[in-house]
Structure formats: structure tokens, C-alpha cells
């Protein structure tokens, strides 16, 4: 089942990590794993939920604020220190928790990414005892349970959930904002450093391209109406263009001439719509292939080679579209009088 459907079923923000199971999972497997998590990781709060449409079970996993503080100490999570204690960043310590900024605020001390990292660290380090087994799966002593069950297909997916409160704030301050600086600090806190660095670079690149774009537009405007400039290249072996004939002011020989107003009319009424249709077609095909890939990956019983078919289909479609669009481009070029 798609993780997008599960994200819509979350009734509260009291869930950081979601663990889903195939629809064929029996009660014994669910109870066995639930018991091991609750005994092996008492810091976690696990709720068992059932998706009403597909009848698939899932574990909604979170932790209390005090447990997260101990987890931050355990993994050495770096947090900002108050200015009166020297400032900067330091690995979190429960013994000196009073020195960290926003320690009194349970809602804002940890970012959603930090909460999820702590919980996933606990889950992935849940170890099996000697002689433990689940059905035909026999664990070695000290072997991580969650990764093994995920590799065997017993656990279908293990992924973090979005925090709708922060997403709505980012939607207003980032996605819907026009001509405003990107909230890079908020992006970093929510999505992580790598994503924030990417959008910081993308913003700088976009801003840097404004100046050459303006200069190029001005240059294009003034050179577009110069028909003599294009006529100088006519004798380089290019095929003749469509249009009326006239005497060339450069070579004094008869040539095809395409009026600028006809060219502009063709570009607006034909070239632009055709290009938009081609782009939309490719986008929809790519989106369909991605959805098909997600559907195929959600079916554990399929052979491994079948999971690569959507990617292969996308590569074939892109190659075919490339050849088709090349012919369309040639036709537009000839008809447009370029």
C-alpha cells in the first residue's frame, strides 16, 4: 500500500514513525513484534492502527519528551547552547540539559527530523536474544530485528511522517511566497542540511541568472528584427524556407522571405501550443511511470526483475519521444520561417 494513503489516516501529530505490514500478516506476527518493541524499547509509545479500506495494520510510533531527551544523549545529538553558557553547538547531555536553548519548550526543542532520527535509531537497534525465532525466521544472538524483518518482507515499510503544522507554515512562507527570501533555516530544521543546501544553491543560481537573462532578452529583441543578419547565412547549404520570394539585399538574388508578423503569429498560435502539449505529455507519462513504480514496489510477491520494468518503460518512452519531438521540431522550424 502507498505510504501516501497512510499519511492521510494520521488523526494526530502524536506519531513520528510509521511501520506498515502486508495485508497477509497474521495476529501472531503483530503481537510478537509489538511485545518485543515494548519490552526491548520501553521508551517508545506504540499504537496499533488498522486501515479501513485495505485492512492493513500499522504501528504508530512516538516517544515522550523525557525519553527523547535520553535518546538525544545516547546518540550524541548536537544542539545549540544558550549564550550565557558559551553559545555554539554541543552534544546533548541530560546532566546539563539546562544549558541548551529552548530546553523548556517541549514543542520546539526537537525538530521533527531529530525526533524521527532518535526513534529510528532505537528501532533499528532492537536486538534478538539467543534462540529467538518468528515462524521460519531464526535470529542470531544480537542480530537487529527490525532490519531483518524488513528485508524478509514481514515489515512492508518504515518511514517518518510529515508534521502538518510545519508543512502549512512552509507552504505560506516558502511555496506560496513571491519575491521573498527562502526560509532556509526552517527548511534545514525540517528537511535536513542536504535539502537546505540544495535549495540555497538553487536560489543563488536563479538570482544569478537574472542579469544574463535580462541582457539576453534585450539583445534578442534588437537582433530579431534584423533580417539581413539571417540572410548572410543563406548560402551555407541550408534547405530553403517557406515563404514568398524577393530579391535579397545581400546577394541580389531571388530568395524566400517570411514576414516577421507571420512568424510571430505562427509562434503564438502553433509553436507555443505544440510545445506545451509535448511537455504536458512527457510530464504525464513520467508521472504515470513513477506511480507504477510505487505500485510495483508495494507488491512483495513480484519477482525482482519485474520491479525494474517501470524504469525500463520510462527509458524507452523518453527515447521514443526524443525521436518524435525531433521531427516535430524540424517541422516547426520549417513552417515558422526560421
From TrEMBL:
<protein>
    <recommendedName>
        <fullName>Anoctamin</fullName>
    </recommendedName>
</protein>
<dbReference type="GO" id="GO:0005886">
    <property type="term" value="C:plasma membrane"/>
</dbReference>
<keyword id="KW-1133">Transmembrane helix</keyword>
<dbReference type="InterPro" id="IPR007632">
    <property type="entry name" value="Anoctamin"/>
</dbReference>
<keyword id="KW-0472">Membrane</keyword>
<feature type="domain" description="Anoctamin transmembrane">
    <location>
        <begin position="245"/>
        <end position="335"/>
    </location>
</feature>
<dbReference type="InterPro" id="IPR049452">
    <property type="entry name" value="Anoctamin_TM"/>
</dbReference>
<keyword id="KW-0812">Transmembrane</keyword>
<feature type="domain" description="Anoctamin transmembrane">
    <location>
        <begin position="187"/>
        <end position="222"/>
    </location>
</feature>
<dbReference type="GO" id="GO:0005254">
    <property type="term" value="F:chloride channel activity"/>
</dbReference>
<feature type="transmembrane region" description="Helical">
    <location>
        <begin position="195"/>
        <end position="220"/>
    </location>
</feature>
<feature type="transmembrane region" description="Helical">
    <location>
        <begin position="264"/>
        <end position="287"/>
    </location>
</feature>
<dbReference type="Pfam" id="PF04547">
    <property type="entry name" value="Anoctamin"/>
</dbReference>
<comment type="similarity">
    <text>Belongs to the anoctamin family.</text>
</comment>
Amino acid at each position: 500500500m502507498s505510504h501516501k494513503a497512510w499519511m492521510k489516516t494520521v488523526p494526530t501529530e502524536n506519531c513520528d514513525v510509521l511501520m506498515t505490514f502486508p495485508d497477509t500478516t497474521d495476529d501472531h506476527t503483530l503481537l510478537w513484534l509489538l511485545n518485543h518493541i515494548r519490552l526491548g524499547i520501553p521508551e517508545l509509545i506504540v499504537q496499533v492502527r488498522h486501515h479501513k479500506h485495505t485492512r492493513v495494520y500499522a504501528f504508530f510510533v512516538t516517544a515522550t519528551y523525557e525519553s527523547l531527551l535520553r535518546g538525544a544523549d545516547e546518540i550524541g545529538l548536537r544542539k545549540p547552547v544558550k549564550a550565557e553558557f558559551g553559545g555554539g553547538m554541543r552534544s546533548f547531555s541530560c546532566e546539563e540539559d539546562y544549558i541548551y536553548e529552548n530546553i523548556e519548550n517541549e514543542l520546539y526543542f526537537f525538530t521533527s527530523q531529530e525526533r524521527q532520527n532518535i526513534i529510528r535509531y532505537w528501532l533499528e537497534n532492537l536486538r534478538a536474544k539467543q534462540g529467538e525465532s518468528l515462524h521460519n525466521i531464526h535470529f542470531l544472538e544480537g542480530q537487529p530485528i527490525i532490519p531483518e524483518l524488513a528485508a524478509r518482507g514481514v515489515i512492508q515499510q518504515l518511514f517518518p511522517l510529515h508534521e502538518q503544522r510545519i508543512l502549512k507554515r512552509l507552504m505560506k512562507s516558502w511555496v506560496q511566497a513571491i519575491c521573498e527570501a527562502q526560509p532556509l533555516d526552517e527548511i534545514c530544521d525540517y528537511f535536513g542540511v542536504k535539502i537546505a543546501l540544495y535549495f540555497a544553491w538553487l536560489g543563488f543560481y536563479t538570482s544569478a541568472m537574472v542579469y544574463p537573462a535580462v541582457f539576453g532578452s534585450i539583445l534578442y529583441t534588437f537582433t530579431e528584427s534584423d533580417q539581413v543578419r539571417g540572410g548572410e547565412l543563406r548560402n551555407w547549404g541550408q534547405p530553403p524556407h517557406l515563404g514568398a520570394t524577393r530579391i535579397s539585399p545581400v546577394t541580389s538574388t531571388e530568395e524566400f522571405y517570411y514576414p516577421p508578423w507571420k512568424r510571430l503569429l505562427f509562434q503564438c498560435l502553433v509553436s507555443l501550443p505544440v510545445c506545451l502539449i509535448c511537455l504536458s505529455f512527457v510530464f504525464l507519462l513520467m508521472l504515470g511511470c513513477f506511480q507504477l513504480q510505487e505500485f510495483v514496489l508495494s507488491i512483495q510477491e513480484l519477482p525482482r526483475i519485474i520491479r525494474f520494468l517501470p524504469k525500463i518503460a520510462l527509458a524507452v518512452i523518453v527515447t521514443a519521444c526524443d525521436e518524435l519531438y525531433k521531427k516535430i521540431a524540424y517541422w516547426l522550424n520549417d513552417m515558422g520561417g526560421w
